[in-house]
């Protein structure tokens, strides 16, 4: 078990490892989570998917089944602790006891000027949702003395970025949450992996960010995440160049770091996508 950086060109994932495995993924309806579910199913695994938008869930399950794989989905907001426990129970009933749990659900909101409601949304989904999910899957894994939990954080966990204090704080919290859980879980037979991607081409990035180039594809990010789990990595930071730049910035004294980062391009919020249903949860319409 080790931390790695830059396993960008991750290649194929192992069919032997994923064959028949029940894998619950939050945020599996879009972007990195969706590609993770497609890859797990393509390698013979059984993804159980959690997200809010039912039409996006149906589309992902449909795509997997159309290519001969199996998948199940339950719509749930990861902020809803009891609902998420019930969703995990329902998915385990359909796909079997969870062997790998991947917490991928997340949102990005700009947090300058600092609006408490917006900043809390980011923390509630990215940290609270991860916590709720891991708390829902861990008792079963600990009873069985086997399992693997994985949290999708970000390279943004390494430093505070301009306009994005809440997002960076949320991802730093996920890294530390899994650090602590690793100490408690691994002697009890449950492995822990934290993955920290740089920019990935998903609905979470803006067209301007996309046009700047250098983004990983969601498929490559998913493969890197699944390889990190297969190889039992404690942490995987990727791509290497973004990780190195962030490490360099993190090594600067705080005020010098602030002066340097103040001039960096700011991560922006993409336009709001269409809602799942016209009468659906209005917060779903703010999802990048
Ligand atoms: N894209 C990047 O550059 C990048 C870089 C580093 C880390 N990440 C992280 O990677 C993860 C996936 O992001 P992505 O880029 O793939 O974005 P995405 O395409 O917007 O996917 C986000 C997923 O999270 C789900 N989600 C959001 N809020 C939720 C809630 N309250 N309850 C349940 N599900 C919720 C969304 O589904 P619903 O809206 O249907 O609920 C969707 O499936 C996030 O944690 C993100 O922070 C992304």
Topology, pairings included?
Blueprint: E1 3-5, H1 15-18, E2 22-26, H2 31-42, E3 46-51, H3 54-66, E4 72-75, H4 81-95, E5 100-103, H5 116-144, E6 147-152, H6 165-185, E7 190-197, E8 200-201, H7 207-212, E9 216-217, H8 218-230, E10 235-238, H9 240-251, H10 254-262
Parallel strand pairs: 1-10, 2-3, 2-5, 3-4, 5-6, 6-7, 7-10, 8-9
The structure holds NADP nicotinamide-adenine-dinucleotide phosphate.
Report on this structure:
With 288 residues, this protein is α/β, with parallel strands linked by helices. It has a single domain (3-7, 15-286), classed as Rossmann fold (3-Layer(aba) Sandwich). Helix content is 47%, strand content 15%. The protein has 10 helices and 10 strands. The protein has helices spanning 15-18, 31-42, 54-66, 81-95, 116-144, 165-185, 207-212, 218-230, 240-251, 254-262, and strands at 3-5, 22-26, 46-51, 72-75, 100-103, 147-152, 190-197, 200-201, 216-217, 235-238. It has an 8-stranded parallel β-sheet, with helices on both faces. β8, α7 and β9 form a beta-alpha-beta unit. α4 (81-95) crosses α5 and α5 (116-144) packs parallel to α6 (165-185). The longest helix is centred in the middle third of the chain and has 29 residues, at 116-144. It is globular and about 50 Å long. The two termini are 33 Å apart. Residues 6-10 and 277-288 have low confidence and may be disordered. Residues 26-27, 29-33, 51-53, 56, 77-79, 104-107, 125, 129, 152, 154, 197, 199-200, 202-205, 284, 287-288 line the site of NADP nicotinamide-adenine-dinucleotide phosphate.
